[in-house]
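Everyone, describe these structure tokens:
***
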Amino acid sequence: MLDEVRLAVGEACSRAVGLHIQNRPEEPVTVVLSTDGGRFSVEVADRVPADGMSPSGLGAQLPGTDGERDDVVMDSLPGAMGLAVISGLVEDVEVRPGVDGAVIRMSWPTAQPEC
């Protein structure tokens, strides 16, 4: 499972860094690691607004989401290929596009200690 975590987090970070290089190199990409309720979570956030992207076909206004996975929304996001890879590697993934950027949250179960 460690390989899947490494690949998924790498894809999410590569996507965010690529967006920042093209559109907002002065803004940081944020990565937050946490554990809660028997799960290990990673959130990767970019700060590239949907309407502020370069005109290379990435600047379309993003539709809203209701928090559930929506393949149409995911396909319309910049870096859709990376998102497809992530969704193939991670069972629990949430993509939250917004006017101030997007957050990709990935979560995996933690191993239970043996008694």
